[in-house]
Amino acid sequence: MEKLKSFYKKYLRNSIVFSAVLALVMYLFIETMARHSLIQSIVFFAENPGVFLFNTFIIFATYSIVLFFRRKIFWYVIVSALWLALGVTNGVILLNRMTPFTVKDMANLGDGLSIVTNYLSKGTLILAIVGLLVVIAGLILLFLFAPKAKRKINYKRSIAAFLIIAVAFFGIWQAAVKTKTVETFFGNLAYAYRDYGVPYCFISTWLNTGIGKPADYSQEKVQSIFSKGELGSDKTYQPRAADEDEEHPNILFLQLESFIDPTLVEGFSYSKDPMPNYRKLMKEYSSGYLTVPSVGAGTANTEFESMTGISVKFFGPGEYPYKSVMLEKTCESIPYDLKNLGYSTHAIHNHRGAFYGRNKVFPNLGYDTFTSLEYMNNVVKTAKNWAKDGLLTDEIIDAMKSTKERDYVYTISVQGHGKYPTEQLLENPEITVTEAPSETQKWQYEYYVNQVYEMDQFVKDLTDQLSKFDEDVVLVMYGDHLPALDMTEESMKGGNLFTTQYIIWDNFGMEKEDKDLTSYQIGAEVLNRLGIHDGLITSYHQNYQNSATYMQDLETLAYDMLYGEDYIYGGTSPFKPTDMKMGIRDIKIDEIVKIGEDYYIKGQNFTTYSKISLNGKVLDTVYLGPTILGLKEEVDPGDVSKMKISQVEKNKEILSTTE
């Protein structure tokens, strides 16, 4: 005991030493929560000492605030509480989703609080509130009664120490980046947190967002990017009016969730080919490798790139433009450009309409309609509760038939989504894994390849149906990213974690032309082959890919359009949010019937997400079929005629309401 006291007096009473020890303990706790294993945290420390010490120093630097206060214990508790909150919150979130905790989640706190009663019972909620009040009271008492240092603060010494730590912090940060101890681009947020540490990644998502202003940003610089007469006499771009005499095909994009060729992964064998139809189409139609911006997750970023032609590498690490700037501003996109040519524009996704904020983002990308899971019937689910893709064939064809105009349809599938089970889940799978490095991987891949097989069958059904369609159609298909199966470059036969495979299919005999592309180039490439050159970013990709400043100028254009002064448009963006309709089928009330004491609504195109609502309040509803809903609560008879139908997603957000 005396030795411990002596050690404390000799070393730990020194704020710098104590802060370093506390930072080490705190970081070990944070990583333990993230990995849900103390042993895994220690293994991470042993295998990545540079990353571990760098993150420890980040935490240590935040403790330097105690140098300016006599109530050191109080401020140690405050700073530690913040780091503990980060660790616990991230750990809990990772138990329920694949994406770790970021600063952007804090921005969505209001939305979370608005639906908290959907997840917590009143008793649990009361206990949580009481617990929070106890913590606040404890901090107040700690501030009032915690011991103060007897010595007065030597502010000159404290300021000097603080400045040394601050300089060291920025120096070490830069050194960690330059030596590749950590990366500044996160292709997969979950993998980045795992590889580079929670504190560094969390702070990166806070400090580094959006597109940085180019050093030479000016009107002259922006307008000088185009030198081949693409702009008008005033050197600005304005969309041209539609020419009804132009003949162009329907243009379909199909983004397949986590869809890759499983035979490209080393160490696995299968009872039969998981994707025979896709493989056949690759041989017959234009195809190649597609470099995407993410791996294991990040569907929305592949979408953003292929719709806008803008690389997400221009944004902050791990940033989703859908969750930031695209909620606030329109962006020129292929849907907008094709609308100017007379196209109707549709988005389809067999998952939640509010996921990634798509119901709010898609109007800013030029879509006329968005059909999400909440507007679909006859949905079949996988064993992991994701909607299967087979129903998308009818949704795509119905979208094209819903208008007289040519159509642009962007479809996002979901069937191949993880997490993938580590135990046997499928009883009689169509395909079995005959060779795998481990038992766990066998079951993960067996589940995955059977989803790929069914998605491949969906691709065949879709192309078979479209081949009979009485209008010209181009269908562009590709995987959005690799599946979340902890693949490494060494395990991929191509040695690349950021490539999937695309096909440009058609029903009118386009010439086969194979080449490798990126997801931000594929839209412009397809339009170029169709003789469509409208759109600022589209024409830029078509004309300047061989320029020495290709990516630099693309970033400047992206900054100008999303964060700058819109110089390229003459100071004002010509793109306004669309009045997007949720679903292509009209949801209607035909009549309200009272049987006994119960009310029933007869109508059209109801789904399991259809709810009776009154004055904006969702009422207790039972779905009885696509033409009838039952009301399960009492209402004032005088209000019955005011009842409407709302489509309500699983987190209780209302997506649309009948007029």
Features:
single chain; alpha/beta; nine-stranded mixed sheet; 21 helices; 19 strands; 40% helix
Question: How would you describe the overall organization of this protein?
Answer:
The structure is a single chain. The chain has 21 helices and 19 strands. The chain has helices at residues 2-12, 15-35, 38-47, 49-62, 72-96, 103-107, 109-114, 122-145, 155-178, 189-196, 198-207, 219-224, 276-284, 299-308, 334-339, 358-361, 392-401, 439-467, 522-529, 536-544, 550-562, and strands at 250-256, 269-270, 286-291, 344-349, 369-371, 407-412, 433-435, 473-479, 499-506, 517-518, 581-582, 588-595, 598-604, 610-614, 617-618, 621-625, 628-631, 644-648, 654-657. The strands form 4 sheets. It has a 9-stranded mixed sheet with strand order 10-3-9-8-1-6-4-5-11. Strand 12 and strand 13 (598-604) form a beta hairpin. It is globular, with a radius of gyration of 28 Å. The N and C termini lie far apart (76 Å).
